[in-house]
Amino acid sequence: MVNYLRTKSVSNVSHNSENLQVDMYFLSRDEIYQTIKPYRMCFPPQGDFPQSNITREKHSVDIKTMRDKESRLNFDDCGFGIMHFDSKMRYEDFEDRARINSVYAEEVGQALKSRLKATHVRVLDFAVRRRHPTFPISTGEEYKHTQPAAMVHIDFTLNEAEAMIRKLYGARAEELLAQHWQLVNVWRPLKGPVRDWPLALCDARSVDYERDTMSSDVVFRDRLAENVQIHHNPQQRWYYLPDQLPTEALIFKTVDSKPDCNFGRGDFLEQNMTFNRRRFDRSILLACPHSSFFNPEATANDPPRESIDYRTFVFYADIACMPPEVGGPF
Predict the structure, then answer these.
(1) Which residues partner with 59 through β-bridges?
(2) C-alpha pair distances (Å), 257 with each of 313, 316, 324
(3) Sequential pLDDT tens for the chain (330 residues)
(4) CA atoms within a 13 Å half-sphere pointing along the CA-CB vector of 254
(5) Which residues pair with 182 in a beta bridge?
(6) What global pTM score does this model have?
(7) CA neighbours within 13 Å on the CB side: how many for 58?
(8) Cα(68)–Cα(74) distance, rounded to whole angstroms?
């Protein structure tokens, strides 16, 4: 797999106990993004057209343990939380996509519905990630399995999430969009304890959404999607779950529809080709930036990380039954 991201700076790694100081990758504060939107193509383009214009920067980040901090780091306040999770799935079952889409998807939906007291959960898509021993060094070939995400991001913008709901429910989507809904990720290891490339989550209350976020295009062969890239800011507060077990799922917000939780729509102003950074109240809880990171406490005896993450719509709509689906979300 070819690495199309370019590193601009480097920093050292140090650590102690369960609080770590590690290197993480963020979108650079390159002047190009004042006039050109970040993008990444998920396939090799023709000719000399760049597959991505994303330039990343490496920054040293303090990451604290979230263990024993659940009272201060709950889902409603910081945008992420820990969910106890028991599954019927065996380790080898996660090679079977059909079983994941039937058994595991149902488990995820029921667990989230109970945990968040939602009226309905619609699971979307999943990624099983099995780190190759060479990752993050590119081999020049495609990996067999999806690899850890090694750059800080948020999976979707509000506009993208709303468009997905309209594709799912057609004319009746407005019934759902008018009430409270969220887009929530569920991240869980297949083996544990996880020490190799764990997941880091940023307290949403510590993010300056006006200055430190930019919507970014993700280009597929048949469609265009939009996610959020994150600039580094030393005020950001990062956490991880040391030695996470398969019975511990991390849940975190990508979008929250509450009027006081709306992430910027990331409109691109065609008339002057300047990215529109909407003004935000910086105290507002929005969404949860996240990324995997190299753990300096991992040893050669710790197996490469294997995990599954599911993306879901969580609805709180006060309606007797959900509208029928008229299409897929993508």
Answers:
(1) 24
(2) 11, 10, 21
(3) 333 333 333 333 333 457 899 999 999 999 999 999 999 999 999 999 999 999 999 999 999 999 988 778 889 889 999 999 999 999 999 999 999 999 999 999 999 999 999 999 999 999 999 999 989 887 777 888 899 999 999 999 999 999 999 999 999 999 999 999 999 999 999 999 999 999 999 999 999 988 999 999 999 999 999 999 999 999 999 999 999 999 999 999 999 998 555 443 333 323 233 334 443 333 334 799 999 999 999 999 999 999 999 999 999 999 888 999 999 999
(4) 28
(5) 256, 314
(6) 0.86
(7) 15
(8) 11
Give the C-alpha separation, 264 to 10, whole Å.
30
CA dist 62 and 17 (Å) reads: 12
Measuring CA to CA, which residue among 45, 41, 2, 3 is closest to residue 141?
2
Contact 175, 323 (CB under 8 A): yes
Q: How far apart are CA 256 and CA 325, in angstroms?
A: 21
Which phi and psi (to 5°) does residue 108 adopt?
-60, -45
Q: Is 241 helix (H, G, I), strand (E, B) or coil?
A: coil
Quick one: tokens of 142? 């495609």
- One-letter amino acid of 12: N
Tokens of 320: 């007797």
